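Backbone shape codes
____________________
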Amino acid sequence: MARISASVYTSHVPAIGAAIDHGKTGEPYWQPVFAGYDFSKQWMKDNKPDVIFLVYNDHATAFSLEMIPTFAIGTAAEFKPADEGYGARPVPTVIGHPELASHIAQSVIQDDFDLTIVNKMDVDHGLTVPLSLMCGEPPADNFAWPCPVIPFAVNVVQYPVPSGRRCFMLGQAIRRAVESYDEPLKVQIWGTGGMSHQLQGPRAGLINAEWDNRFLDRLIADPAELSQMPHIEYVREAGSEGIELVMWLIARGAMADVAGGKPPVLKHRFFHVPASNTAVGHLILENA
């Protein structure tokens, strides 16, 4: 059967993608951010998965305010980088895994979670920036991401958004789906977005480093308790865009300890502020 080998958690700040694409990663402002992912790039090479299940939020590219699915799974064979108003990022097309994606959709929907099945969509910085941070820039002679990716988009843009508890339960359903797939695939699940930031209004620029690090502590040690945190605390303590962190609970819910297994092994933890008015957080957890 397939199995989830690890979970990865990372912010997906759009300016990080711009810094990579315009050769600014070594500049004094950006260098500390990218240094936090040096370990992660080597870890990815040493622990290459067969498939990445990547949880992110669309930023009005694949979906508009005319139609916003709460949970959407990409089942296509490929997903092109989206043009977010300044041209598509110069990164590889994302190759999907239609067979596993369709199996997960079937299993999770039968497990009473309503997913939107998406057979064609472009993917924006919410998905491509984490891939760039973890995998580095693909060489010209092999311009491809290291493995197939299943995009899983979550609405954290237009209220009502799903609760942390719902996301945590969904992660458990995704683990069950993966483990029922009859092929020995090693799957990583990534939760992206956050950490604390607010992009508009009187609190624009808000960063709450103390709260962010407490969130990381709780995510590692007691995710079930963390999943009960109400939306209002995310907004009050982490800013209006801090609600993106519920997506991390999907990835955490898919880990083995939640189903009675051993606690995960913390391989890497990183936190830095600021990165374009956003707190950058990052974890790698391996199933024991």
